[in-house]
Design brief:
Blueprint (H helix, E strand, L loop, with lengths): L12 E2 L4 H16 L3 H17 L22 E7 L6 E7 L7 E2 L5 E7 L2 E8 L11 E9 L4 E4 L6 E6 L5 E7 L8 E5 L4 E5 L16
Helix pairs in contact: 1-2
């Protein structure tokens, strides 16, 4: 579990195999097959996702610790729990130490994000430019919210897809992400709202490598 040194074939599928995770992935796969609209899928997934956040004991402590080698900085750890081999779905834990913040970033996939431990402050940005210049973006704050254990929110790009989170609890916060891509291995974007600079960004998992074909060309 959460072991970077596992054999290659173990870097996909259930990296953490528990009944709680299997139940959520099975429900997600069922709804993917039945519903074409991402917004409808996300809404229908709320009960199953809420049950995972409410359950105790399924997340190994090895997937709940800071990562000092993090590409996101600040000791932030991103641990794959489930990865579809075709890159269509992932579940991961994100560990943000107290006082740390993620970069401002996007996700490029629909999904759900919820708090499993601790508290977070989320700042969401709205993009004002047309996106034609890949290296620049004009952002304004759209909303801020504080979230605690069991609270969660949807991601439905382009709405509310650019954000950053900070831990506001005394101990590290842990959020659980269910997203319709292989989030840590796709090239997405990191933003500097003050300067407008946009940079290519791939966060990587602490416990699984990204496939070579995912390398930026």
């Amino acid at each position: 579990m959460c072991d970077l040194h596992a054999h290659d074939h173990q870097h996909f599928g259930f990296l953490v195999d528990t009944p709680e995770i299997r139940a959520l992935i099975a429900e997600t796969q069922r709804l993917n097959a039945e519903m074409a609209d991402p917004a409808a899928r996300v809404e229908a997934l709320r009960p199953a996702f809420g049950r995972l956040l409410a359950a105790e004991g399924w997340l190994p402590e090895t997937c709940a610790k800071p990562d000092e080698t993090s590409k996101m900085g600040g000791g932030i750890g991103q641990y794959a729990l489930y990865r579809a081999e075709d890159g269509s779905l992932c579940l991961f834990s994100l560990v943000v130490p107290p006082g740390a913040s993620t970069p401002v970033h996007d996700h490029l996939a629909w999904g759900l994000v919820g708090i499993y431990r601790g508290r977070q402050d989320e700042t969401v940005y709205r993009r004002l430019d047309d996106g034609r210049d890949a290296s620049k973006a004009t952002l304004e704050i759209a909303k801020r919210q504080q979230l605690g254990r069991g609270e969660f929110y949807p991601l439905l790009p382009p709405a509310d897809d650019i954000h950053y989170v900070s831990t506001i609890s005394e101990h590290a916060s842990i959020s659980i992400h269910l997203l319709a891509n292989d989030t840590a291995c796709v090239w997405r974007h990191k933003f500097d709202p003050a300067s407008g600079v946009v940079m290519p960004f791939r966060s990587g998992y602490a416990n699984a490598p990204c496939p070579p074909e995912a390398e930026r060309r």
